[in-house]
DHS-like NAD/FAD-binding domain-containing protein
Amino acid sequence: MATSAARPGTVPPKDLESFQAHLNKSTRILALLGAGLSASSGLPTFRGAGGLWRTHDAVQLATPEAFGRDPGLVWQFYNYRRHMALQAKPNPAHYALADLARKKDGFLTLSQNVDGLSPRASHPEDKLKLLHGSLYDVKCSDFFCNYFEKNNYTDPIVPALAIPTDDSDPTTTEAIKARELDISDENIALPEIDYNHLPKCPTCKRGLLRPGVVWFGEMLPKDVLSDIDEWLTESDKIDLIMVIGTSAKVYPAAGYVDLARAKGARVAVINMDKKDQPASGMYKRDWFFEGDAATIVPELLKSVVGEITEMPDAAGTA
Ligand code: APR
């Protein structure tokens, strides 16, 4: 395993050279993306610092049971995440990966991120498989209803879920008055939401709408899985898998690292935390690039995509 002797965030020249030599000749490449890719865009990850929303473990809110028990709370969490992700901007790593997808035909990205930042960086849609869905898809929670809406960027999704603002201080100016309160902080009171004011299904008129993300205990989207299977079975070999900003602990997503290895892939991990290695560990010919994905990924991909200069945001059109 190549190790980084340089300070985190910079790529040791020898590792950069060997990685780029391999990347340049690779024709079948996978990337597995996680929340760490969007960390420097200002969005919190799930495990470790930032994994708490108020007093709730973010992972505990991402279940059908939590939604069944308290749909108002779960919608407040997801409406907040939709809002925050809309305020955030894709970073150079999102753009570099999107560009790699345009330049290398045989490059497929598997993303666990639901934040919409890769689509907004114009990552080609057919080269981007959203394993865990998207915050901007909504569907009916009623078992018998198939209502599904793609790319719903309405913020707030219904008026009752608007982020409360601080207008309590009479001395503040209009601008400060309109300051949004940080409802991820448990010290800020959460407004009571009337069940009848939550998003309702426009088709069956019975069910509540729910976020189009994959919750714990749920199947990954069938069409996404079959597209990936098709790509995997196109050839016996895979040259490279980049494992970017993910703790690689959630399955089946994390299992793609071993699948790629079994087809000969060398593994390149890009992560802030040296301990976050794939379950199979690191092999001799792997790379671990320690530091911020937003800096390291564009550096690694430069030999194919060049310098990332333009960063147009396709917000709302993705
Ligand atoms: N650059 C690179 N890596 C980073 C950065 C950064 N700036 N910041 C954090 N990381 C790393 C962390 O060290 C950690 O390994 O990103 C990883 C984030 O891990 P998780 O919070 O577990 O996120 P992820 O792997 O995407 O979680 C997988 O779990 O909760 C579910 O459905 C949710 O898709 C999510 C899945």
User: Anything to note?
Assistant: Residues 44-87+134-213 form a domain with the SIR2/SIRT2 'Small Domain' fold (CATH 3.30.1600.10). Confidence is low (pLDDT under 50) at residues 2-7. The chain has ten helices and 13 strands. The two ends are 38 Å apart (CA to CA).
